[in-house]
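> forwarded from #structure-qc
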């Protein structure tokens, strides 16, 4: 029985440029290297999951349909078809009961169980401490990318304590995993990477 790994990807600031309450497809801007990174991750055998907080829905600033249209435009720009095994759009606002909103690990835990993923070979990738904490609380790897929110003190602390990796962007993370696969057996445990 083969080992199955998974990558849980934040959207805004990780795959596409971070726009406040994005609702217009014309404003979807794929970040440099995203398509190449996705291609590498798929070639390495990882299942990909989209995991995005979208509190604008509960705030009445956009609709789920808006989010889905923007996701469709993002997929069109990536140009690799339907790349996600599953998608979670967490619509709760910070002041509501948190069910799926990151840092809740619920979506990750559900997908691990549904797809028989090995937590040892799963990662969450995002640009905020809440992204990382969701992965940490689900007992999977976490990786910060510097393409969205600033490198905060909370993120720095997680990296310093060896709880998270840190990379300039998603492509560098994908290349890191590719290098691990080339140097060791597939799905070998990741080494910690500390940013300069």
């Amino acid at each position: 029985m083969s080992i199955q790994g998974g990558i849980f990807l934040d959207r805004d600031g990780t795959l596409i440029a971070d726009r406040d309450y994005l609702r217009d497809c014309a404003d979807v801007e794929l970040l440099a290297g995203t398509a190449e990174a996705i291609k590498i991750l798929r070639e390495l055998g990882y299942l990909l999951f989209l995991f995005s907080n979208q509190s604008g829905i509960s705030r009445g600033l956009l609709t789920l349909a808006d989010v889905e249209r923007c996701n469709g435009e993002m997929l069109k720009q990536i140009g690799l078809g339907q790349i996600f095994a599953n998608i979670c759009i967490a619509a709760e606002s910070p002041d509501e009961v948190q069910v799926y909103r990151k840092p809740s690990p619920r979506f990750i835990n559900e997908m691990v169980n549904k797809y028989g993923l090995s937590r040892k070979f799963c990662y969450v990738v995002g640009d905020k401490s809440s992204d990382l904490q969701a992965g940490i609380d689900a007992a999977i790897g976490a990786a910060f990318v510097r393409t969205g929110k600033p490198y905060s003190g909370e993120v720095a602390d997680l990296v310093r304590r060896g709880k998270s990796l840190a990379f300039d962007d998603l492509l560098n993370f994908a290349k890191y995993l590719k290098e691990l696969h080339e140097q060791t057996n597939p799905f070998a445990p990741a080494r910690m990477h500390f940013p300069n």
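QC bot note: The chain has one domain: 6-183. Residues 54 and 91 are 5 Å apart (CA to CA).
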